[in-house]
């Protein structure tokens, strides 16, 4: 699909410097721009590329003043970065604008599916499922019995949503996610073997949640595992049974959260963090990557390490840790000197 500079200017409320009929059909980095592509300049570090790029249209800040000739048509806006983000969102909406049902698929007669939907090939939708308006389910996905999915949610290929789970509006669940698998619940018996504890709860995902590829969220033993509004989960995260994650919390890749842990609102959790079960993490907590959390954390704490402790204390301690061999050698030398003094 092609757009002219004037059409894009109308979307972004921008000012055109150059050819208003210049056409673009793809997006690019400024240093990799080719004829027919649209790019942007926001970071001054990339300014030299605007004089060499082959991109047809470049979105720039209104404050930009060219020091020499620019071949591209310029589109001046108040904030080039935000404007380009808006274009990316617009482009993504067009790219994901599929509708209708592909064959083959299996949809229960009791399922209720809203208008303007997309159901990809080899999708299975179970009994009493409800899908809202504008929901898109990409190929090879499974939606179990009694699941509800809110308006405008996108479920990418290969997602598995087990029975009785509830997904809110405007969510994005990326490929390979498993929502509602059994929690890790076993009890040892007299023979030293383990018996499975039935997991009869569900998963509730509220509105505006993004879940990265191959992330798993286990159903509760009783009650619900809950992902609150606005949460953003990266790829390959494990959320165990009965966990609750507060609204607008973001968690990076490969983090594991054990059962019944409660995480507050607005937290930022780095990659490869391990959190034990049954702890409470307050609001606006920041946990640095590869930290191990084994106790409750209060609101606004910033921690690092395994076991994690105060971020500033960790950095001070790490300076000494790096110099530990030198400190040990100094200690040995000091002991040697004291011994020689005593002998004298």
From TrEMBL:
Its EC number is 2.3.1.191. GO terms for cellular component: membrane. Keywords: Acyltransferase, Lipid A biosynthesis, Lipid biosynthesis, Lipid metabolism, Repeat, Transferase. Residues 103-182 form the Mannose-1-phosphate guanyltransferase C-terminal domain. Pathway: Bacterial outer membrane biogenesis; LPS lipid A biosynthesis. Pfam families: GMPPB_C (PF25087), Hexapep (PF00132), LpxD (PF04613). One of its GO terms (biological process) is lipid A biosynthetic process. Residues 23-89 form the UDP-3-O-[3-hydroxymyristoyl] glucosamine N-acyltransferase non-repeat region domain. InterPro entries: GMPPB_C, Hexapep, LpxD, Trimer_LpxA-like_sf, UDP_GlcNAc_AcTrfase_non-rep. It catalyses: a UDP-3-O-[(3R)-3-hydroxyacyl]-alpha-D-glucosamine + a (3R)-hydroxyacyl-[ACP] = a UDP-2-N,3-O-bis[(3R)-3-hydroxyacyl]-alpha-D-glucosamine + holo-[ACP] + H(+). The active site is at residue 241. It comes from the Bacteria. One of its GO terms (molecular function) is N-acyltransferase activity. It is an enzyme of class 2 (transferase). Catalyzes the N-acylation of UDP-3-O-acylglucosamine using 3-hydroxyacyl-ACP as the acyl donor. Is involved in the biosynthesis of lipid A, a phosphorylated glycolipid that anchors the lipopolysaccharide to the outer membrane of the cell. Homotrimer. HAMAP family: LpxD. NCBIfam families: lipid_A_lpxD, PRK00892.1. Belongs to the transferase hexapeptide repeat family. LpxD subfamily. This is UDP-3-O-acylglucosamine N-acyltransferase. It comes from Urechidicola croceus.
């Amino acid at each position: 699909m092609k757009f002219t500079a004037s059409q894009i200017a109308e979307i972004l409320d921008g000012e055109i410097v150059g050819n208003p009929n210049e056409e673009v059909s793809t997006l690019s980095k400024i240093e990799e721009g080719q004829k027919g592509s649209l790019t942007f300049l926001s970071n001054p570090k990339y300014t030299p590329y605007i004089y060499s790029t082959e991109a047809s249209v470049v979105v720039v800040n209104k404050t930009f003043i060219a020091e020499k000739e620019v071949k591209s048509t310029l589109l001046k806006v108040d904030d080039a970065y935000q404007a380009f983000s808006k274009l990316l969102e617009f482009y993504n909406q067009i790219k994901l604008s599929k509708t209708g049902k592909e064959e083959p698929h299996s949809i229960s007669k009791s399922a209720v599916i809203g208008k303007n939907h997309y159901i990809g090939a080899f999708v299975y939708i179970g009994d009493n499922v409800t899908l809202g308006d504008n929901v898109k389910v990409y190929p090879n996905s499974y939606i179990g019995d009694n699941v509800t999915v809110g308006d405008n949610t996108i479920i990418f290929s290969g997602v598995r949503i087990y029975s009785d789970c509830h997904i809110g509006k405007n969510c994005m669940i990326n490929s390979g996610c498993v929502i509602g698998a059994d929690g890790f619940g076993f009890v040892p018996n007299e023979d030293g073997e383990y018996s499975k504890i039935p997991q009869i709860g569900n998963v509730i995902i509220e509105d505006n949640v993004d879940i990265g590829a191959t992330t798993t969220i286990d159903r509760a033993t009783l009650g619900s595992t809950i992902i609150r509004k606005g949460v953003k989960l990266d790829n390959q995260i494990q959320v165990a049974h009965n966990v609750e994650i507060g609204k607008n919390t973001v968690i990076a890749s490969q983090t594991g959260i054990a059962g019944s842990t409660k995480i507050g609102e607005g937290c930022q959790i780095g990659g490869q963090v391990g959190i034990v079960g049954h702890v409470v993490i307050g609001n606006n907590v920041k946990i640095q990557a590869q930290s191990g959390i084994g106790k409750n954390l209060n609101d606004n704490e910033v921690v690092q390490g395994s076991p994690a402790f105060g971020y500033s204390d960790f950095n001070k301690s790490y300076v000494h840790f790096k110099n530990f061999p030198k400190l040990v050698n100094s200690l040995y030398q000091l002991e040697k000197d004291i011994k020689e003094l005593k002998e004298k």
